[in-house]
Design a protein that fits this description.
Blueprint: E1 4-10, H1 22-25, H2 30-44, E2 46-52, H3 56-66, E3 75-79, H4 88-97, E4 101-105, E5 127-130, H5 134-148
Parallel strand pairs: 1-2, 1-3, 3-4, 4-5
Helix pairs in contact: 2-5, 3-4
1,3,4-trihydroxy-5-OXO-cyclohexanecarboxylic acid is lined by residues 13, 79, 81-82, 84, 105-107, 109, 116.
């Protein structure tokens, strides 16, 4: 049987993890997070693909691609970063492909500025994990794997 594939998308500025506002986002780099997701994927028996972009349209394109091809993606974990609070286009792309979504954030967006409390993505996500730093991604991957089991 083909391994189930889970796509993990990280939005803008997350390429700077490690040095970006470490008091909020911690010191773990995105490369370290992604390596730990690949290792966890092997444990869980799922194939993990990672993608980071600072560009809204590139994220929309990647979501569309997830539904195409010989092995479509079974679930998407997405940290839309700043686009969480602004992007109708990313929400619409997620709704269009009908792939189950787990929204994930390093920080607890509800403890921060008021503008971070609104997420355009939550309404199309199965669930949300926020506030556990790099561990949020691993929890989200476990949730996504459980969804597709
Ligand atoms: C974030 C929270 C967002 O509000 C912020 O714009 C980010 C990162 C998080 O992971 O905590 O870039 O998504």
């Amino acid at each position: 049987m083909e391994a189930r594939k889970i796509l993990v998308i990280s939005g803008p500025n997350l390429n700077l993890l490690g040095t970006r506002e470490p008091e909020i986002y911690g010191r773990t780099t995105l490369a370290e997070i992604e390596a730990s997701l690949h290792a966890l994927g092997r444990e869980l028996g799922v194939e993990v693909e990672t993608f980071q972009s600072n560009h809204e349209g590139a994220i929309v394109d990647r979501i569309h691609q997830a539904a195409a091809g010989p092995t479509p993606v079974s679930a998407i974990v997405i940290n839309p970063a700043g686009y969480t609070h602004t992007s109708v286009a990313i929400r619409d792309a997620l709704a269009a492909v009908r792939i189950p979504v787990v929204e994930c954030h390093l920080s607890n967006t509800h403890r921060r500025e008021a503008f971070r409390r609104r997420s355009y993505v939550s309404g199309v996500a199965v669930g949300i994990i926020a506030g556990f730093g790099a561990e949020s991604y691993r929890l989200a991957l476990r949730a996504a794997a459980a969804l597709t089991a």
